[in-house]
Specification:
Elements (H helix, E strand, L loop, with lengths): L1 E6 L7 H4 L8 E2 L2 E2 H11 L4 E6 L3 H9 L1 H4 L2 E5 L4 E5 L7 E6 L6 H7 L10 E5 L2 E3 L3 H11 L3 E6 L7 E5 L2 E6 L9 E8 L17 H8 L3 E6 L3 E3 L3 H13 L7
Parallel strand pairs: 1-4, 1-8, 4-7, 10-14
Antiparallel strand pairs: 2-3, 5-6, 8-13, 9-15, 10-13, 11-12
């Protein structure tokens, strides 16, 4: 199965860094969050990626074009004008980088990469800014088992503020940063059948609107419930939390 990663947005809520690079290239522990997401898929044997580029897409292209150069020992023979790479354990990835336009919406980006997908094979799709300790093999198996067109991973949003349990003005209980209000949200890890792309009209189509709501209305959208770790990187605060987890050596998504 191939994995489509949406990596073309502006990342305006983390503009402290995204004015220099696309949001998926913002680093956690010295590696772009895009790399962390790809490592998660690769851990479960999914190594064929299609990355949808837009804003500052050249930064992503240059990163992968020079990936071996920056991650291997090498000998430069200046007299001979040669470069010798000394093998190291490189990622077993095949990465297709597609310019899908700076102004294209999420659904439009998916439509633009349709030609790189197998018309008879389901594929993963995710955003380039979120990590989880998700078993992607289980998600793929779940999708194949139910026979519908789409699977979305449903997650509990992380809590951001301490909660007070108050009765008659007295605080009965304080919960430090509890999880969400028991509601589940779109965690951004999808498995899709190729025909869902027919629901995308053009570049202006937002995946989370007509295509996704239409799938739900038609009974073609199933949810894989994930109760473990999940976190987006929407703001600098989010980035710093993920950075701290990685530095501690206890990042739940680490593979």
């Amino acid at each position: 199965m191939k994995t489509v990663i949406l990596a073309g947005g502006l990342g305006t809520r983390i503009s402290e860094e995204s004015h220099l690079k696309p949001k998926p290239m913002i680093e956690i522990g010295g590696r772009p969050i895009l790399w962390h997401i790809m490592k998660l898929y690769s851990h479960y044997g999914f190594n064929d990626f299609v990355i949808c580029l837009g804003y500052k897409g050249y930064v992503v292209k240059e990163y992968f074009a020079n990936y071996v150069l920056h991650n291997a020992d090498l000998t430069v023979d200046l007299a001979a004008g040669s470069l010798e790479y000394h093998a190291r354990n490189h990622e077993p990835w095949r990465v297709t980088l597609v310019d899908t336009g700076e102004e294209t919406m999420t659904g439009g980006r998916l439509k633009r990469v349709a030609r790189y997908l197998d018309p008879d094979e389901p594929f993963f799709m995710t955003y380039g800014d979120g990590v989880a300790d998700l078993d992607l093999r289980q998600v793929a198996d779940f999708h194949r088992s139910h026979g519908r067109d789409a699977t979305v991973t449903a997650v509990v949003p992380p809590g951001r503020y301490g909660a007070l349990d108050i009765v008659d003005g007295q605080v009965q209980r304080f919960v430090e940063k509890p999880p969400g209000d028991n509601g589940l949200i779109n965690g951004g890890f999808f498995v899709l059948n190729p025909r869902v792309i027919d629901r995308v009209a053009d570049d202006a189509t937002i995946w989370e609107q007509e295509p996704l709501t239409g799938l739900a209305a038609d009974g073609q959208l199933m949810a894989f419930r994930h109760t473990g770790f999940w976190a987006p990187m929407d703001t600098l605060r989010d980035k710093n939390i993920l950075e701290g987890l990685w530095a501690s050596g206890e990042a739940p998504w680490r593979r």
